[in-house]
Amino acid sequence: MIDYLLCFDDQDEAIEFADTHGFDTRDTHTAAVSIIGEHVTLTGEEITDGPFKGTKHPQGDGLFWVLYRDINETLEVPEEAETYIVWASNSGEPRPTDAPDREFA
Predict the structure, then answer these.
(1) Structure confidence by residue, pLDDT tens digits, 46-76
(2) What share of the chain is helix, strand, coil (3-state, %, to 5)?
């Protein structure tokens, strides 16, 4: 299995890429997709009153994230995908700390 973490400017770009390059779930026996959407972290200004006092406001990154799993390692990754792939589980690189940490169970 190979997991790919992809990042797009918006949902429409993600859908167009998936349709064009096979990063979809048409064959559910070979792939899985987890839609993350915008990555939100609690890094905004600190909340000063109310029940959430002392925590920080959620801050979105404005991007559209997708976690894709190639179950049988049969997907031919096109060169155009390198623009969107932030991390691949077979790369040997650690997962970026400023990206969503979603994983498949």
Answers:
(1) 889 999 999 888 888 888 988 888 888 888 8
(2) 15, 30, 55
